[in-house]
Amino acid sequence: MSIHSPPEDWFEAPSGAERVWIGIAMIWCLVMFIAMPYWYFFGKQNSTGEAYRVTPAAFSARVNTFVESHKVGEVKGMPIAEPAPGGDAYLLARMWQWYPVLKLRKGQTYRIHISSTDLQHGFSLQPLNMNFQILPGYDHVLTITPTSAGEFSIVCNEFCGIGHHLMTGQILVEEQAP
Amino acid sequence: MTTITADGVLPARTPAGNHLAGAVRSCETTGLPLCAVSSRFVRWHAVAAVVFLLIGGIGAILLALTRWPAVHLLNPPWYYRVLTLHGLNMLIFWILNFEVAILYFVGTTLLNSRLYSAALAWAGFLLMIAGAIIVDIAILSGTSDVLMTSYVPLLAHPAFYLGIILVAVGCLLGVINFFGTLYIAKRDGTYEGSVPLVVFGATAAAIIAVVTLLHGAAAMIPAFLWSVGLMDGVDPSWYRSTWWGLGHMSQQVNVCAMVSVWYLIGTLSVGSKPLSETVCRGAFLLYILFINVASAHHLLTDPGVGAAWKIWNTSYAMYLAVLASMVHGFTVPASIEVAMRGKGFRRGLFGWLTAAPWKNPAFSGFFLSLVIFGFGGGITGVVLGTQQINIMAHNTLRIPGHFHVTVVGGTTLAFMALTYYLVPLVFRREFPARVLCRLQPWIFGIGITLFAIGMSFAGSYGVPRRHWDVEFSGALFATGFDSGAHVMLGLMGIGGVIAATGLFLYIALVVAAVFFGRSNAGAGMEPWHTERSGGEVARPGDEDEHHTPGTLVLTGIFLLSFVVYYFANWKWLSDVWHVR
Ligand code: HEM
Ligand SMILES: [Cu+2]
Ligand SMILES: [Cu+2]
Prior knowledge:
The structure holds two protein chains of two kinds.
Chain A lengths: L15 H27 L8 E3 L2 H15 E5 L2 E4 L6 E7 L2 E3 L1 E5 L4 E7 L4 E6 L3 E5 L3 E8 L4 E7 L11 E7 L4
Chain B lengths: L1 E3 L4 E3 L12 E3 L6 E3 H32 L8 H34 L8 H23 L17 H30 L9 H31 L8 H35 L6 H14 L16 H9 L4 H23 L8 H4 L6 H24 L13 H30 L6 H27 L22 H34 L32 H26 L3 E2 L1
Helix pairs in contact in B: 1-2, 1-3, 1-14, 2-3, 2-4, 2-5, 3-4, 4-5, 5-6, 5-7, 6-9, 6-11, 6-12, 7-9, 9-11, 9-15, 11-12, 11-13, 11-15, 12-13, 12-14, 13-14
The complex binds protoporphyrin IX containing FE (HEM) and copper (II) ion (2 copies).
């Protein structure tokens, strides 16, 4: 009985179906573990957490420099900035916008630096459904290669105050230039 | 010697307890010794738990009706406020109060001991209540709309942090009281040999609870000091890792408590016993050893923590805590199968299951909890906690979709099920409206399952959690979700309303029983289910303690679903943009 003290000699190795199940479960657990390092080396989607300490003021300054030197247009009052393929891009999360709009090219790789100057925010790229946490004080670097072209939305999925649900942004991806 | 009882077969106990004269009574139904002092606190904590469940439940229906786009009930400030209220009253106040009640109950009754200290129990209880009231006032006053995680630098009223600290300290006192009870029971020799399995599981829960509550202190005390201006700021990354030391580990406390309750109800309802004490205890031990830094599950897409750290802490190389759950997931139904076959219900693969005491809401609640937790919570939990797959899940509705089938469909439903014994045995009151009692676990279980399916799949479409408007009306860049997501949100809303109905029915039944129910003092509890004999003759092999073909089939289906969902997620992940 589970509610009474067991007999003195309760220590025994599992047997029968129970033993079979434990064996199967153990193998499955190992498979699930191995999948992660495997994907780290051979998979294309990983969250490495690459990040650097940065003050909100310093990060703002970097974003502004980036926008000034890479601005290629404007949409709804928001600058559009296009980083060089292989280069760095900056994205600022703040209550309640993603600044600026980024323009990328399919198949090119970019180092996108994202940080916040106020609260925590959630970078959620839709409709792909890729999600990363953004913290003030940390420059979170995502090394991203778009594999599809079109207009993508960024929504905020970490609660950041009363305007949280209004915090949207955009990433535009063009087909590779010929 | 055995005595036949209402729902199970329980041997009489031998050693004498350590109770003070007049402070113990023998339960008329089970023959178990009930410590009068401990029973009082079991009742107080259980009543408090149900009150918080009511507050959380009102929040639940309001939230479900807000996130159901067709209804969209609350305005933004109230949505975020009620979300804060719901999370804390449910996850912390309801669950912790019920768990302290369980610790006091199993620590005294199953060990035939008195409670270590009534003074400590009072102090713990009052702190937990005072803290919870302070938190609820802080939330409802509109000064603490920070959600239960209160991620810095979001700032709440200092009373908010203070109240949570008081609850944690009160709970810690309850846990210390439990350890004190274990100590005096051992010292006074109130039981022979090792502690019963259920007490072992409760002890595992209590040990993890101590580590959990210390993490809570490490997160909340700096936040409190910062809110009153005694500290300059709290590092958000550090805060997240300590907060989740509280938030995630406490889920392991809930799992341990829930599994203990499963074993307890198994014994009370069909007289089951563990197939192997060693295996069951070993699995509880794995929980203690391998869960500790599992706050990693919440930081899988965070900056500043590396991939190696994430992979290691997600799994400790081999997912031994998952292994433990898979072991319990087998041994719990297997012990029921063996017990039922032993009673003569031997027809086919599942004759033991169909003949189980389904008229006993404690049994049906327990079994639903087992199935919902295993198939729903277990599978989604491991998948979402896979380091890379988390990229497609972090902060989407997949996350609450997961934990509403662990801590709600699993733990909460198991606790509800236990209540169908707790009230007749400890309050000595009979439940009225027994038909409704028998329906309640089904309404709640089916509702929360639909709710979580809707939530989970809406999350797979990208719908964020903690978000007021899936239409983003008024946002600078218009966006939205696939129509499939809206179908899923509708399912979530309908499931939520059904689950809330089951929850309010539970509260109504408990109130009716405790305050207006017929007393069964002196007579014992009226059985939920009349025991009959299966009357099927044993065939060769049946006497084998490990003959559990039905359970093997069930767990086989489980493993298959697990494997399919797991690899499907890797496939989905391989389709998104490349990222490092
Ligand atoms: C009738 C049953 C319940 C329903 C219909 C329900 C519904 C909901 C809804 C709609 C949300 C909001 C999700 C979002 O917008 O992000 C939510 C959040 C939550 N619920 Fe429940 N819930 C129920 C029971 C419970 C119980 C019993 C617990 C705990 C034991 C619980 C714990 C939570 C937690 C921790 C959150 C997250 C709060 C946050 O994001 O800060 N719920 N629930
Ligand atoms: Cu935001
Ligand atoms: Cu936000």
